[in-house]
Design goal:
Layout (H helix, E strand, L loop, with lengths): L17 H9 L5 H9 L3 H16 L2 E5 L1 E4 L28 H8 L9 E4 L9 H14 L4 E4 L2 H10 L4 H11 L14 H7 L6 H13 L4 E7 L5 H20 L5 E8 L6 H5 L7 H14 L5 E2 L3 H4 L1 H7 L6 E4 L6 H4 L10 H10 L3 E5 L5 E2 L9
Parallel strand pairs: 1-8, 1-9, 2-3, 3-4, 5-6, 6-7
Antiparallel strand pairs: 9-10
Helix pairs in contact: 2-10, 3-12, 4-5, 5-7, 6-7, 6-9, 9-10, 12-14
Length: 385
């Protein structure tokens, strides 16, 4: 799919998309009703053409990836999310907590050579308090000063501040002083209160996530944002979720702040969890996955990057997603537990060479980045201006 050379409405078959195509062509912001129409249309290729138009306007053929490492410091969790297969309780044979020494040792393994970003999220375990995280971050930075620390969902941050007897603001400040540099976007799930009651009762107040993301932005900490789709949600819940993210980004950008760097649609994995035992929920289809990428690119006009997260939808479909609005394939990952515990069948890791091949084969320009989208020469690894 290439940049359209004629009016966008000529690329769509669904008459309901015609006025939306005109808005996209004019650079106008889409509404809640527009979002519902994007979810309702059967014209997936037309939807993709609109999203691809916006993607090419924003980024041209540039497509990003990062050499990163996913790592969870504990799987013990006292917050009950019905969709989660990762969580364990104390005494469970699967339960673990990693020390700072454990993590430094793990990061010293050869497969981590070249990693620029450490992405850490984990369970909610009350025995871990601020001193654990300060020691962890300082130990990692002492051993690997070049490693960017991207840690904590917004709900994790709230939980560990409370068990540490600190305000969230105080907790963030101490973590930043110890080495925290940015935050991932997980834990947002779906913001609708009724859906949260069904899928993540232990973190049912969406305002916690939104408030802490805004607090991070105000402190100059960039974050990502996500949405979990493909379970019991309806289109109206998803549009509401996207618009709340867009509104928050408006507020952050109005203050001259970076705010959200990227949005990642997360496909629900339907194995080994309570939600899939209670409801009949099928694995997401390629149509669903591509639609989520495209709708996000069209609705989230103020968030720079949209990822096609290969871990959850597979490398091949993520590659197609680059033609449906995505401009980032995430990264090498090296080891991912949360999605794979719930049934993800993607590989545990992709090499830098594999990511470059996927991007180039799809007709795009591969750019290695760090978490802040500084780019690097593919051959030498030198930072590009």
């Amino acid at each position: 799919m290439t940049a359209p050379s004629r009016p966008l409405d000529q690329y769509v078959r669904d008459l309901a998309l015609k006025p939306i195509a005109a808005k996209v062509q004019a650079g106008e912001r889409l509404t809640f009703e527009d979002g519902l129409a994007l979810y309702a249309t059967k014209d997936l290729t037309g939807l993709g053409a609109l999203a691809n138009h916006v993607r090419l306007q924003k980024h041209g053929l540039k497509t990003y990836f990062v050499q990163n490492r996913r790592l969870s410091y504990t799987n013990i969790c006292y917050t009950h999310c019905q969709f989660c297969a990762f969580q364990a309780k104390p005494g469970d044979p699967r339960a673990y907590v990693l020390s700072a020494e454990d993590i430094v040792k793990e990061l010293s393994k050869p497969e981590n050579a070249g990693v620029k970003e450490l992405h850490m999220v984990a369970g909610h375990y009350p025995k871990l308090k601020i001193d654990y995280f300060e020691n962890l971050f300082r130990s990692i930075k002492a051993a690997f000063p070049q490693l960017h620390l991207k840690v904590f969902t917004m709900v994790e941050m709230d939980y560990y501040a409370k068990v540490s007897g600190l305000t969230t603001s105080e907790f963030i400040d101490r973590c930043v002083a110890a080495g925290l540099e940015s935050c991932p976007g997980g834990g947002a799930e779906i913001f609708d209160a009724g859906i949260r009651e069904e899928i993540c009762v232990g973190k049912k107040d969406a305002n916690v996530w939104l408030r802490n993301a805004e607090l991070c932005h105000e402190k100059g900490i960039p974050t990502n944002c996500t949405m979990l789709y493909g379970h019991i949600e309806k289109p109206e819940h998803k549009v509401d979720h996207l618009l709340r993210l867009r509104d928050l980004q408006d507020r952050s950008q109005a203050k001259g702040l970076t705010g959200f760097l990227a949005y990642i649609p997360l496909a629900y994995q339907n194995e080994n969890n309570e939600l899939s035992r209670k409801h009949v929920i099928h694995e997401t289809t390629g149509v669903q996955d591509l639609r989520e990428i495209a709708v996000a690119r069209l609705m989230l006009d103020n968030i720079p990057h949209v990822k096609a997260y290969w871990v959850m939808i597979g490398a091949g479909l993520a590659q197609v997603g680059l033609h449906y609005g995505a401009n980032d394939l995430d990264g090498t990952i090296i080891e991912e537990e949360i999605a794979h515990d719930a049934g993800a069948t993607s590989p545990q890791a992709l090499s830098k060479a594999e990511l470059v091949r996927l991007i180039q084969e799809a007709g795009f320009e591969a750019l290695e980045r760090d978490n802040l989208y500084q780019t690097y020469d593919l051959e030498t690894g030198a930072a590009l201006s």
